[in-house]
Design goal:
Pfam families: Tll0287-like. This protein is of the alpha/beta class. Helices cover about 50% and strands about 15% of the residues. It has one domain (about 1-25, about 40-270). A four-stranded antiparallel beta sheet has the order 4-7-6-5, sandwiched between helices. A two-stranded antiparallel sheet has the order 1-8. A two-stranded parallel sheet has the order 2-3. The structure holds heme C.
Length: about 270
């Protein structure tokens, strides 16, 4: 019976969170009543939800924009923000851009990618996280814990080589620390941090909104970059995607797809 009630509670918070996720686009800004609101959501549930949204965003960006764009001759580069480089951000840097944008706002949400064999030395897993990563590599299950060093609630999720491009780019990169990555390997983790163990409805909503706003910000940076292209052809920005030709979706078209995809998958996972 106890287990049943526990499951019901879990299901309820999951459904409520899904509704937040679906409606996130059109919600009002955070109000001052936050403090008196009931803290209905565990930090683990909220970080799992935003991690799911991140998976969808990153996959959509990697496959539809980078994968589809390359076929149209669009370029993507580590130094995409360099004035002389006419290119868009690589997926890892797209994520870094989202994380930077979140950091600039007032939602205390942390996000980063790390690995035991990173390309960028500052992404090296260390201490407790390096220890926990051994289990993640083994069973691919997320880890939720309180990080004593940073005093932050932390969630780590496996980052898997889901496309041949992950493996070939990392194996061949001049700064790589490992040259035999294989498709399906756990290549690192996506780590999320938040300073409280439970969140109110408004706070949970702000976390998802901060992530979505971050996505829009980086995507807009990419479109701004394109405006300044001098030598490369400029794709037309609007309703169409690179799979249709030399096009890029407008920011609202991109975000709308993320919203639809994440809503669908969240609902499907509820019906399992
Ligand atoms: C075209 C090259 C390229 C592709 C494709 C690529 N990456 Fe990376 N990845 C990089 C670079 C460069 C960095 C370092 C970025 C930075 O400075 O933080 C990086 C960073 C990472 C990190 C953080 C640890 C590290 O190595 O610094 C992980 C984990 C990671 N990528 C996983 C993936 C996965 C999984 C995929 C496929 C879904 C993928 N990457 C696709 C180039 C690539």
């Amino acid at each position: 019976m106890k287990t049943f009630i526990f499951l019901l509670k879990k299901l309820f918070s999951f459904i409520t969170l899904s509704l937040i996720l679906i409606s996130c686009g059109g919600v009002p800004e955070e109000t001052s009543s936050t403090n008196s609101e009931k803290k209905s959501f565990s930090v683990a549930d909220v970080l799992t939800m935003v991690a799911h949204e991140n998976d969808i965003t990153r996959t959509l960006y990697t496959k539809a924009i980078v994968g589809g764009g390359k076929k149209q001759g669009f370029k993507f580069d580590e130094d995409w923000q360099d004035e002389k480089v006419e290119a868009g951000p690589l997926p890892a840097l797209f994520l870094r851009g989202i994380a930077n944008d979140i950091r600039k706002g007032d939602v205390p949400l942390g996000l980063y990618l790390s690995s035991d064999f990173p390309i960028n030395a500052s992404n090296q897993l260390e201490g407790k996280q390096a220890d926990l990563y051994k289990d993640i590599k083994e069973n691919r299950k997320p880890k939720h814990f309180f990080d004593e060093d940073t005093k932050l609630y932390t969630a780590m999720f496996a980052d898997v080589a889901g496309a041949p491009a992950c493996v070939s780019c990392h194996n061949k990169h001049p700064k790589t620390t490992k040259t035999d990555w294989k498709l399906g390997d756990v290549m690192g983790t996506t780590t999320w941090q938040y300073p409280a163990d439970s969140l109110s409805y408004t706070e949970a909503m702000s976390v998802l909104k901060a992530y979505r706003d971050g996505t829009t910000a980086v995507y807009n940076d990419y479109l701004e970059e394109i405006k300044n292209f001098k030598e490369s052809e400029k794709p037309e920005v609007g309703k169409k995607w690179p799979s249709n030709g030399k096009y890029l979706p407008a920011p609202e078209v991109f975000i709308d797809s993320v919203r639809k995809l994440s809503a669908y998958i969240t609902m499907s996972s509820l019906m399992k």
